């Protein structure tokens, strides 16, 4: 199956060595060491290629239109974030008709070999704490250290920055937040479902999706992590950098309560 997927993308990217690293419902993500405009370079940098393959269950014309619209939308969001100075992959190249986005590779490998997503980093700390617990007795302080609090605050600030610029991520999970080698500064990735909206409802749904993601993947410490995340979100809204930030924060948090209530009702009804 992997060979088939690689063959599919290489029909549009001949002679480009790629390694598949992620497969989602809409797109495939590949890693490559080849730059699209400088293929003879011996630079050891890595790049990411995101490819939306054709969907056989859709009419070809409709599928082509959807692919182009979503690829253009993703590229526009990445360009907008770059202009705003918000950490996200730099857009290198794109092929809208064939659903390809070529971008900067972000992150580093954790000691256990996993990429430094926010989720993987928290998991690594939990695994390390459990190993120490087995040897020395119960001590989970590593998972709620000042460093973790700082990173959570920074993640909250980052989300606040995109919301204050009316960018909605659309799939805001801890997997789509990458920590950079420089002091674990967070960056956002995967803008396939992103959009532009000033509505508090859309921003609240973004926050709720992340809140639920933290709860499902880090349940023991989820209340602490989410509290720290929202503190960072609040801090950036109340900073002097953004006019009307305090008002927008109040509107979004008020709407978040409504979104949570709807979520609880759905859970009760199954």
Describe what this molecule looks like in 3D.
- This is EKC/KEOPS complex subunit BUD32.
- Belongs to the protein kinase superfamily. BUD32 family.
- It is found in: Chromosome, Telomere; Cytoplasm; Nucleus.
- Component of the EKC/KEOPS complex composed of at least BUD32, CGI121, GON7, KAE1 and PCC1; the whole complex dimerizes.
- The chain has 270 residues and is of the alpha+beta class.
- It has two domains: 2-104, Phosphorylase Kinase, domain 1; 118-269, Transferase(Phosphotransferase), domain 1, CATH 1.10.510.10.
- It is built from seven helices and nine strands, in the order αβββαββααββββααα.
- The strands form three sheets. The protein has a five-stranded antiparallel sheet, sandwiched between helices. A two-stranded antiparallel sheet has the order 6-9. A two-stranded antiparallel ribbon has the order 7-8.
- Strand 1 and strand 2 (28-32) form a beta hairpin.
- The model has no long low-confidence stretch (mean pLDDT 91).
Any key phrases for this structure?
2 domains, Phosphorylase Kinase, domain 1, serine/threonine-protein kinase, 9 strands, alpha+beta, 49% helix, 270 residues, two-stranded antiparallel sheet, single chain, 7 helices, EKC/KEOPS complex subunit BUD32, Transferase(Phosphotransferase), domain 1
């Amino acid at each position: 199956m992997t060979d088939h997927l690689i063959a599919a993308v290489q029909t549009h990217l001949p002679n480009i060595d790629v390694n598949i690293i992620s497969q989602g419902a809409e797109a495939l993500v590949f890693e490559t060491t080849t730059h699209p405009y400088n293929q003879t370079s011996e630079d050891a940098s890595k790049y990411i290629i995101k490819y939306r393959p054709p969907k056989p269950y859709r009419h070809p014309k409709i599928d082509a239109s959807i692919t182009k619209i979503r690829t253009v939308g993703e590229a526009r969001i990445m360009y907008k974030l770059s202009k705003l100075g918000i950490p996200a992959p730099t857009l290198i190249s794109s092929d809208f008709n064939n659903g390809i986005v070529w971008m900067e590779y972000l992150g580093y490998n954790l000691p256990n070999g996993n990429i430094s997503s926010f989720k993987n980093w928290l998991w690594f700390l939990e695994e390390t704490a459990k190993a120490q617990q087995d040897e020395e007795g119960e001590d989970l302080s590593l998972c709620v250290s000042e460093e973790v609090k700082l990173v959570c605050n920074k993640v909250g600030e980052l989300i606040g920055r995109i919301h204050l610029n009316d960018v909605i991520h659309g799939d805001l999970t801890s997997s789509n937040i990458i920590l950079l080698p420089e002091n674990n500064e967070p960056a956002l990735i995967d803008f396939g479902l992103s959009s532009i909206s000033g509505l508090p409802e859309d921003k609240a749904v973004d926050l709720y999706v992340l809140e639920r993601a933290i709860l499902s993947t880090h349940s023991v410490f989820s209340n602490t992590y989410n509290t720290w995340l929202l503190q960072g979100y609040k801090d950036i809204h109340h900073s002097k950098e953004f006019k009307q930030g305090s008002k927008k924060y109040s509107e979004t948090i008020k709407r978040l309560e409504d979104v949570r209530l709807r979520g609880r009702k759905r859970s009760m009804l199954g």
